[in-house]
Amino acid sequence: xKHEEGQSKxxxxxxxxxxxxxxxxxxxxxxxxxxxxxxIFGGVLLGHHLDRRLGGxxxxxxxxxxxxxxxxxxxxxxxxxxELRRDRLxxxxxxxxxxxxxxxxx
Length: 106
Description:
- By secondary structure, the chain is mainly α.
- It has one domain.
- The chain has 4 helices and no strands.
- The chain has helices spanning 2-12, 16-54, 59-88, 91-105.
- The longest helix is centred in the first third of the chain and has 39 residues, at 16-54.
- The two termini are 18 Å apart.
């Protein structure tokens, strides 16, 4: 009886692979936010500095804001493509884990 209880407790705990995948997804989400925010903020900051130094109104601020937006969107698209490609390579492992879980319940 003890052996069966130990097995059910072990099955109810998430595996290290599941935790690792969860952390990777969380970090990827954080990376996407930074990939978008940093070029925009950097462009505005640099543009504002150049406008103050060169006296060009808001020309550099707006120009580098737009450039930061373009670079940020490009970074996000590249990160999403990388994650989707990585996700496509793993379906057989997920199916294998699902089969193992279903076999445990039988």
